[in-house]
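Dataset card, provenance and construction

Sequences and ligand SMILES were collected as paired inputs. For each pair, a complete structure of the chain with the small molecule in place was predicted and serialized as structure tokens. The example below shows a pair involving flavin-adenine dinucleotide. Curators did not alter the output after generation; any descriptive sentences attached to a record were derived from the structure itself.
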Amino acid sequence: MGEALPPTRAAGLARLAEFVPRAAAYGERRNFDEGPDGPCHVSRLSPYLRTRLIAEDEVTAAVLRVHEAATVRSFLNEVGWRTYFRGWLVRRPAVWRSYRGALAAAEAALKAGPVAERHARAIAGQSGFACLDAWCDELRRTGYLHNHARMWFASLWIYGLGLPWVLGADFFQRHLVDGDAASNTLSWRWVAGLHTPGKRYLATAANIERFTRGRLRADFPPLNAALGPPAEPLGEALPLTEPEPPDRSRRTALLLTADDLGGLDRGPLKAAYAALDAANRVPVALVALSGATRPLGTLGSTAREFLDGAAADAGARLGAAGIDATIAVDPPADALADFAREHGVTQFLCAESVPGAAADWLATAGAAWPDGRVAGLRSPWDHALWPHASRGFFAFAPALAAAGEALSRATAP
Ligand SMILES: Cc1cc2nc3c(=O)[nH]c(=O)nc-3n(C[C@H](O)[C@H](O)[C@H](O)COP(=O)(O)OP(=O)(O)OC[C@H]3O[C@@H](n4cnc5c(N)ncnc54)[C@H](O)[C@@H]3O)c2cc1C
């Protein structure tokens, strides 16, 4: 990324304000990737949205305050893809578990042999595909790739190098500054032909040359669809269950995860915290960052810097509201129970996590604290849209448009 993205809510809001006037031109230009130092036709709001320093409904409302919906539909749909993927994964948690299992198996098999060698060369930027090697370098240096570059990268990884898609998804997850369990895993599955069964994404040299304006050398022969993974059944979407509501009679602290570092500045936490009996509001917060370190590798330095900075920003904003925040990087399973005991609380309020590192940690931390309670709060935006995220995006799009209109009416000056 050519410019630095400060990891604060204030910087996210400033970036949004800078982007809003450009939102109408987005649809026409968004597919061009002019490189980290070239003109940027997209918003680059993703690290802020991924950590929910700012949220999809805030972005949608800000854009609709200035533009007619029809002129910015393309941008609003892309923001909606994030809501859709999260809602889709909530309804199919087995897809996340199966990704974790397949990743563990692929990592264990990487000890030696041709796949291990191809994988090592690919992540070192020496795959032999000049454009893939350039994106590998860009990703490691900047923590960011344009959406089109992510699609081409994943396609070359799977259908050019014949590498397991889960290893590519993991490489992205560790290096992207916006690395997100739902958007990343499901996008890789989409390229691999697993999200929309039978529809694989095969990059072509001509498409890459056109949309990078000839900046990158792409002179490879047609990719080989047969290198993709075998089809697998999607399974039925589970019914959407409501998260546990807060119990107002319990002494309560705040819990923030990397899935929502908005704190009390926005979102459902703000409203739920205000609704608690004052005597039960214990002014402490645990900010738990799971998934920062892991067995095979750790987060890349740019991704880690953003996450640490965003957590520090959340801590500072909570501090300004009189709440003492403790930041824990990759906390152990008993960290929640220990923190609760130390501060005499029996309940945490937390924005709801979708399947991913934070939810995995919460599940083990909750099991280690059987008497305690974590009330996960769903945002009104997710509440309105997730019921429509059980099938494809095109079935979801009308609900997205209606939610945007409702939001626009509700936030009109
Ligand atoms: C293989 C692959 C992996 C990806 N991994 C991630 C990831 O880990 N985290 C992530 O946030 N996005 C991911 N994306 C989606 C998309 O590439 C990025 O959200 C986008 O490039 C971020 O740049 P931007 O903020 O300028 O997006 P813009 O084009 O300006 O879009 C605005 C916002 O909409 C959302 N968005 C846009 N496109 C998509 C999309 N296709 N799917 C889901 N949300 C979208 C993002 O929150 C983004 O910030 C992935 C896409 C692919 C093909």
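Derived descriptions for this record:
The CA atoms of residues 177 and 303 lie 4 Å apart.
The chain has a mean pLDDT of 94.
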